[in-house]
Design a protein that fits this description.
Elements (H helix, E strand, L loop, with lengths): L12 H5 L4 H27 L6 H19 L3 H8 L6 H29 L7 H30 L5 H16 L1
Helix pairs in contact: 2-3, 2-6, 2-7, 3-5, 4-5, 5-6, 6-7
């Protein structure tokens, strides 16, 4: 009987050798900071309703939203998947990465809806609706960032260097405090 000793292993051999350094996470954490800054802008607009933001604030917000839509339509999860996937069929990894991808798509769809809503001449005539859309967007986006960071911690586990773990812990702490 030919049998591979690592076959059926809970932690595949390939994952034991891959170490995730802080440099591997910097781009992702920076992207998370951009998303959270966008959430803060959306929250400020929602809090100020029914008042309209000034033109330059609105233009900056809409261009950032449109960039989020474009990034959401690209394969945002490819980098994360390459960093975390082991090459083996692991149901937990697949499920968590699928969930991250779906959250990215949901954020992009919500951003697309906001861009369309703000494109309407009477967007501020229904501040309750606009406020609900903004709050749904920034709440979902913040949860997506938190979930993605927690997914990295859950799937990378012992492969994170202390510095990489510290970057994620700081990002999660910042997210909780803001």
């Amino acid at each position: 009987m030919d049998r591979t000793p690592l076959e059926g292993s809970i932690v595949p051999f390939a994952r034991r050798w891959h170490v995730i350094h802080e440099i591997d996470l910097i781009r992702l954490v920076q992207e998370h900071r951009h998303r959270l800054a966008l959430c803060a802008q959306a929250e400020a607009i929602a809090d100020a309703l029914p008042d309209r933001p000034d033109g330059s604030t609105m233009d900056a917000f809409l261009s950032t939203l449109e960039a989020l839509v474009l990034r959401g339509e690209r394969a945002d999860g490819d980098y994360l998947e390459a960093m975390l996937a082991s090459g083996h069929s692991d149901p937990l990894t697949g499920t968590l990465l699928d969930h991250v991808r779906h959250r990215h798509m949901a954020d992009a769809a919500a951003a697309r809806e906001l861009v369309a809503a703000f494109g309407e001449a009477d967007a501020f005539d229904a501040p309750e609706t606009l406020g609900h859309m903004l709050r749904s967007f920034f709440t979902g986006c913040r949860r997506a960032v938190d979930f993605e960071q927690l997914t990295i911690i859950a799937l990378a586990g012992h492969r994170l260097t202390p510095e990489a773990r510290a970057i994620l812990a700081d990002a999660l702490t910042d997210s909780l405090l803001n």
